[in-house]
């Protein structure tokens, strides 16, 4: 208990140290901004003039302004313990100290920078997180900060520099409103609204607004475009091949196959025998399923992944975790919430006899008599077939007014589909009206449904016929079970002992069904009388759930915003 309390105290001290560094960095940025637009003390400036020309002193003012902008943008990253932010801040503070001295012997501003520099050195070991991958959201935030900073720079300067300017030949003391309007006039009027600087410093300041605006906004635009310029495969080919070897040997669910899709990155355990397939979005590192590898290596894998996420300032999260792994997650202090159930049909006992299956028998007889034909193709799938499936897929997406999902399901991709079983339903004219692709389960003789799509004019009962035929096909092929995959929110929050989060998800299931048709999907799968197995979202604590929710939405959508930013899109 004493050890735990000591750890908690150190944690509080660390958080306090990070908070102080963050606040002081933001304050130092604002001080730099104000210092840049404030004329130096005349006596100090005269003393410096004996050694340094005005152009050098003016350069110190300009650097103070630009460093202020960068320090403000770095403050948030320091709060998130980013190592690179620490390095850049330390360098900027060192240069700021020099710039404050050469622009006017401003010891006061230098003292603040020295104090912050000393504090950052004292807590340097806290900064272990790597930089975030490029993101459009990050770039847009910096673009907004750049525009506001430029406006603030000009406004503060005009407001402080009373008597340094004429407007249309008349001396003027700018009010706060006038300062804002005059700053905007610098950029949007041909004659700067009649502005006439008086003296060297006033002329320098008026010109420096252009420099500050150009530099900060150019930097921000580069940050916006950076995701497009640097976009690439999350994992190297070597990592992907290494993950494939582990998954082939130890994968035990259909998610293992989806772990090899190109949106995934990989963490390998210290022993190299296990792998976690994850997608990093924002502050959430969301693993698809449980770690894959030998069971005796599972504890070390979780410990290593947790440390890996901590170094990157990520929240380790496991999506669709199996119930038998919950005790292990609990030993690490994780929490979990049920997110749905997988519908699994036992093919040893499945049959279409009885009154409950009358609809399936009717559909099979009706479609067979009408000349419809069902066929299952085994991998590798010919490209000609995939080309014929593409119009059906596109029509289905248009019908659903949606787009391809990622992360926990596959998407219409030639390389991916070539390695799957594909069930196809033809009408009497040989036209494809529906299809589905299936994943073989590692270490178990089970198949799992992934994509299931049909034409917009498909007759009622089409999918009943397709799936009843699928079950019969794989039953005759000797498979043990058929997995209908996750039924989102099914069975969640129904028991009196359910967590608050699960009860909230149950409310979502009951009241937003009109938008997402969760119930319809669940009821369709229920017709096959499957066994329902719960699946869980495992997370560190409740406060991380908002970031994790946003991360899941981004992972599911594949960050399609980046596609819209591509040149020519």
Question: In words, what does this structure look like?
Answer:
This protein is an alpha+beta fold. The chain folds into 3 domains: 2-230, no CATH class; 237-334, no CATH class; 342-496 and 515-532, Aminopeptidase, CATH 3.40.630. Helix content is 54%, strand content 16%. The protein contains 21 helices and 14 strands. The chain has helices spanning 2-37, 42-49, 54-79, 83-104, 107-122, 136-160, 176-188, 200-230, 237-250, 255-258, 298-311, 326-331, 358-369, 383-399, 414-417, 462-476, 500-511, 513-516, 518-526, 545-557, 561-564; strands at residues 165-167, 170-171, 195-197, 265-268, 275-281, 284-288, 315-321, 335-346, 373-377, 421-426, 432-440, 446-454, 481-488, 531-539. The strands form 2 sheets. Strands 4-5-6-7-14-8-13-12-11-10-9 form an 11-stranded mixed β-sheet, sandwiched between helices. A hairpin with a 5-residue loop joins β11 and β12.
- Oligomeric form of this entry? single chain
The main sheet comes to: 11 strands, mixed
Q: Which overall shape is indicated by the principal axes computed on the Cα atoms?
A: elongated
Radius of gyration, rounded?
31 Å
Strand order of the largest sheet: 4-5-6-7-14-8-13-12-11-10-9
* First-last Cα distance: 59 Å
Helical content, roughly?
A: 40-55%
Give the low-confidence spans: 1-10, 506-516, 561-569
Mean pLDDT: 82
Number of distinct helices: 21
Question: Which structural class do the helices and strands define?
Answer: alpha+beta
How many structural domains in the coordinates?
3
